[in-house]
Specification:
0% strand, 437 residues, single chain
Length: 437
């Protein structure tokens, strides 16, 4: 390995490692919900699987917009502009989004009655969604401040908060779901209340930290909001396109049987745990490429891009080997329901192939975020997931009787197409930058 490669890998890892810790912590919070729900009952797991599939599709709109904070402020820093003054505008932006998304989630609850889910699941789905709607503010405050601090390469404390929250969430889940001491067993409602408490804890922990390490003056700049929207809308829509593609599978198959929704949630939990590593690398790429882009340093931009891609794909190849080697063990961590195991295990072999290309596409997305070319990510995701994955998956699932496996064949095909399109566009974008500079 060359000295130059080691240097750029180390620079990326300095940012990525704490983010990996935090990302894994964040997804382990969700995995804790799945773990506790699965041990409570398959119906509980099915209900929260459907509820989170719907709420995630709505809430990712705001998360995608908030994700524009870090690359935008990184570009400002690369251009030697002040970035700290955007602290209060960032919070205001996230809270306005929180209001919009909260009402969107609440407005979607009455629609559950018309989606033909199993009747016994409907009250639990609606109960979970109602509480989750009001947790949006805590979640968005945390996301916004995490992005703000990440732009300054302050990543350790925010991710330590996330790791601590894993244990807090498990303790609250066990206490409120099964009942402990003076607390009665609340089932699905207990999972929702635990998530509510954890999200607000994470948000306020970062808020207190920011006030302790920095001094802020209130600042108003309408252009900042316009820039966040300009960069964030494509990011948000791209995330929504992918999230809706994944979560619509749980919704569609959940109408066939709740056990399919439970299986999809279980599989997504497993793959998302491994995905948190390349996602963190992608975040680090976005920061470093954003700084290089702002400074018009094309050599650093290309080197961070190449090294980041190698790191991301290399990790996912190792992850794919683990998933294909120990599928029964991994599924067995979450459930002993034989039907659920029978549905989930074959999908993990398809997932192994999908993961390699997923690692490549998220690294490419980080490069485009840093270059502020997020429209490319949106268009590529839309074509891959909505023009190929969902139609192909639906056909294989219901016309060839492959059920959940059919949808995952569609997702794997989409990931391959997505990578091909993004690689072509990246090469063209870099060639254009080289000709300008």
């Amino acid at each position: 390995m060359s000295t130059q490669f080691k240097y750029y890998a180390k620079e990326l890892l300095n940012i990525a490692l704490p983010i990996i810790m935090g990302n894994l912590g964040f997804i382990l919070i969700g995995a804790g919900d799945v773990l506790v729900a699965g041990h409570h009952s398959t119906d509980t797991l099915a209900a929260i699987s459907i509820a989170t599939a719907i709420t995630n599709c709505i809430q990712t709109f705001g998360i995608g917009l908030i994700a524009s904070v870090s690359p935008l402020l990184s570009n400002f820093r690369g251009e030697k502009k002040s970035a700290k003054k955007y602290f209060f505008p960032t919070i205001r932006f996230s809270m306005v989004l929180g209001v919009i998304v909260m009402f969107a989630v609440l407005a979607s609850i009455p629609l559950i009655d018309y989606l033909h889910f199993e009747e016994k699941l409907v009250p639990m789905i609606k109960e979970y969604m109602f509480v989750t709607a009001f947790a949006t503010f805590g979640g968005y405050l945390h996301a916004a401040l995490k992005e703000f601090l990440q732009a300054f390469e302050i990543v350790l404390f925010p991710n330590l908060v996330t790791v601590f929250s894993v244990f807090l969430n498990i303790a609250l889940n066990v206490t409120l779901v099964f009942g402990l001491g003076p607390f009665p067993s609340l089932g699905v409602l207990g999972l929702a209340v635990a998530s509510f408490i954890v999200r607000y804890f994470m948000g306020f922990a970062l808020l207190i930290y920011c006030f302790r390490v920095m001094n802020f003056n209130d600042y108003k700049d309408f252009e900042y909001y316009k820039s966040l929207i300009k960069i964030g809308i494509p990011i948000s829509c791209a995330i929504m396109v992918e999230f809706i593609a994944f979560n619509s599978i749980a919704i569609i198959m959940g109408r066939v049987s709740g056990v399919y929704a439970a299986a999809q949630n279980l599989i997504c939990t497993l793959t998302t745990v491994s995905f948190m590593v390349p996602l963190a690398i992608s975040n680090a790429i976005a920061v470093k490429v954003g700084f290089a882009n702002g400074a018009k340093n094309i050599n650093d931009l290309k080197r961070y891009s190449f090294v980041g891609i190698v790191m991301s794909v290399g990790f996912m190849m190792l992850s794919a080997l683990i998933f294909s080697s120990f599928p029964n063990f991994l599924v067995g961590l979450f459930t002993q329901d034989s039907n659920l195991v029978k549905i989930s295990v074959p999908v993990l072999y398809i997932l192994s192939v999908f993961q390699i290309f997923d690692g490549l596409q998220i690294a490419l997305a980080g490069i485009f975020k840093g270059m502020k070319r997020t429209g490319i990510v949106l268009i590529s995701n839309f074509i891959a997931y909505w023009l190929l994955s969902i139609p192909l998956g639906y056909t294989l699932a219901f016309h060839f009787n492959l059920n959940l496996r059919g949808f995952w064949y569609g997702l794997a095909a989409a990931a391959v197409l997505l990578c091909v399109m993004m690689v072509i566009m990246l090469l063209k974008s870099i060639k254009k930058l080289e000709s300008i500079n």
